[in-house]
């Protein structure tokens, strides 16, 4: 596996993986079509991934503009 050289590359890679996972969960949400337990699990994962994506974006801003 290729080693990431810097934080900017790493956060970009993480963001891409999160965006792909969000898309996969959207598809899964359509497949389960309102099943309550499964829907709860998917929506919980979506919320956590959106939060993680937002945190990564905040990290990228801090990296770009350190104090």
Question: How would you describe what is shown here?
Answer:
- The model has no long low-confidence stretch (mean pLDDT 84).
- The relative contact order is 0.16.
- By secondary structure, the protein is mainly α.
- Helix 1 packs antiparallel against helix 2.
- The protein has one domain.
- It is built from two helices and no strands.
- It has helices at residues 7-32, 36-64.
Features:
67 residues; mainly alpha; elongated
Write the layout of secondary structure elements.
Blueprint (H helix, E strand, L loop, with lengths): L6 H26 L3 H29 L3
Helix pairs in contact: 1-2
Summed up, what is this model?
By secondary structure, this protein is mainly alpha-helical.
Which term fits the overall shape?
elongated
Total count of domains: 1
Task: Please report which band the strand proportion falls in: under 5%, 5-15%, 15-25%, 25-35%, 35-45% or over 45%.
Answer: under 5%
Number of strands: 0
The total of helices stands at: 2
Could you tell me the radius of gyration in angstroms?
A: 15 Å
| Mean pLDDT across residues | 84
Low-confidence stretches: none
